[in-house]
Amino acid sequence: MHELIYQLRWALPMWLVGLLTNWWPDNRLTLRLRGALARPFIGKCGRGFQLGRNVTLLNTHRLEIGAHVYVPQGGWLNGLGGMTLESEVILGPYVVISTLQHVFKDGSARFGGSTSGPVRIGRGSWLAAHVSVKCGVSVGQGTLVAANAAVAGDLPAGVVAGGVPAKVIGENRDGEANFFRREDLAPSR
């Protein structure tokens, strides 16, 4: 009975949001609209949530999302072990974050079961394209994880990390932006 309630309250509505909206292009309006439609089916979700198409969100009842979080196309997040994306987190395309890990039994992972551990991504952090994050990991506030990195251990706040496994490769410093909107780059007439 518990599984049926879970499916009706969380899993099926998220599937339906994807079914109805994945054909929409990813632009400012549809990212926000898709995020607004998904919000009621996520454990805790702040305002300004932007959700790309073809994103897989599993076990959303254990997922906490802060304000102004962006999850783009192709992301795969499994929150069963508890996942927190703090405010202003940006994920790149095809980021994989799992709170579960398979366990081997008799030399095989197929029927070995799983272990779980919560994942926390700190405020203002950016996980670039194709980053994978292992269960039980914490990424500090304001951290940049470079594309294709595999985060297998905790990362401190305010760093740039990259590689397999991800290691700190520098300090993440504030920079000067030269534009904030597409219109800022348009040629003057």
Which terms would index this structure?
189 residues; 5-stranded parallel β-sheet; 2 helices; globular
Description:
Helices cover 16% and strands 27% of the residues. The protein is of the alpha/beta class. The strands form five sheets. A five-stranded parallel beta sheet has the order 1-4-7-12-15, with no helix packed on it. A five-stranded parallel beta sheet has the order 3-6-9-14-17, with no helix packed on it. It has a five-stranded mixed beta sheet with strand order 8-13-16-18-19, with no helix packed on it. Strand 18 (159-162) and strand 19 (167-171) form a beta hairpin. The mean pLDDT is 95.
Brief characterization of the structure:
With 189 residues, this protein is an alpha/beta fold. 16% of the residues lie in helices and 27% in strands.
Task: Give the total of beta strands.
Answer: 19
Q: Kindly name the structural category.
A: alpha/beta
Percent strand equals 25-35%
Poorly predicted ranges (pLDDT <50, ≥5 residues)? none
Number of helices: 2
The gross shape turns out to be globular
H and E order: HHEEEEEEEEEEEEEEEEEEE
